[in-house]
Each structure stands twice: as structure tokens, then as C-alpha cells.
Design goal:
This protein is an all-alpha fold. Helices cover 81% and strands 0% of the residues. Helix 3 packs parallel to helix 6 and helix 5 runs antiparallel to helix 6. The longest helix is centred in the last third of the chain and has 45 residues.
Length: 211
Amino acid sequence: MTRPSQPEPSAVVAATAMFVEVLVVGIGFLTALAILAAAIAGPDNSRRLAPVASTPLAAGAALAFAYALGILIDRAADTALTLARRRLRAQSFPSSTAYAQARLKLAEIPALTARADYARSRLRICRGWVLNSILLTVAIDLALGRYSVEHRPLLLATATILGVLATVGFYLSWHTITATGYRKLAAQTTTTATQTVPSQPPAPAPAPQIP
């Protein structure tokens, strides 16, 4: 009795997941920009601009802008991590051609493709938030330096330490997910290729010679 094949993930679901990933990254970057703008504008100007920023129109524009910024940050983070990504890929694949062939083989297996897509979703969020953590840390430190707050040295130290820990944590998460993804891709496609190679039938016995 053959087991039913697992259904392929819906294109709508995949597109929605991609939208959410980009938006999550973009919102983080937009938040950093807002804090940085508030630090540059100062307390008085920020107080005057607050009613405008809280309108529904501004919220809609911010959501659209966050999505656009998410695409930008995703590409920037991918470019910044290119050398590290290539070194990790070289540990599992001898060449770019071997990696491309493995991706083609993986596309033929819906169940494995869905798992790989989930891993890439987490990967994109982690690499985007590597940059977001740096930008947020800088923006918060500048804002704390510009505004009058109590215990400023303590707050600056706390924000900086937490920002550094977040940056390192997101980078290590990206590194682990990337390395694991390459290893699994190499193992899964190699196993699949081995299983799909048909066994060669034994050579037929020679016909008896008739005297």
C-alpha cells in the first residue's frame, strides 16, 4: 500500500510568508530610523511632530515604507554576509555548479522543499536583524545622548550591551541555520540520487552453441 504524497505548499502561503519576513525586517529598520530622526530633531520638534505621526494616513505610509525598507535591508544584509555564506557553502559543496544541481534535485521533492523554505524564512529574518540590531543600538544611544533622562550612563551602557548581544545572537543564528541548511541539502540530495539510480539487471547468459 503506497503512502499518499504530502501536498505541495500553496503559492499564496509562500508569498504571504515572504511578505511577513520582509515586513518584520523593515519594521525594525523603520523603528531605528524613527528613533534616529527623533534624536536629530530634538525634544521640542519631536513633540510638535507627534500628532502628525499618529494619524492613520501616516501609519499606512509607514507600513508601506517598512515593506520597501525590508527589501533594501534584506539585500544589504545578504551582500554584507556574502563572504561568510560562500565559506559555509564551500564546506558542503565543492562548486557553485554542484550547489545549483542540488537545488534542482531538492525542487523535485515537495516535502523537503517545504522544510528548506521554512529554514530560509528564519535565515532571512536573522540576517536582516543583524543590521537592524546595529542600527537600533546606534539610534537609541544617540537618542539617550540628546534627550534629558535620568541615569543616562546606565541606560547607555545597558542599551549598548543589549544591542551587541542581539547583533551577535542574530549573526550566530544565521550562521547556524545557513551551515545546517547546506549540510542537509548535500545529504538529502545525495541520498535521493543514490536511491533513484536503478539497479542494473544481470547480463543475460550466452545462448548455447548448436553443433
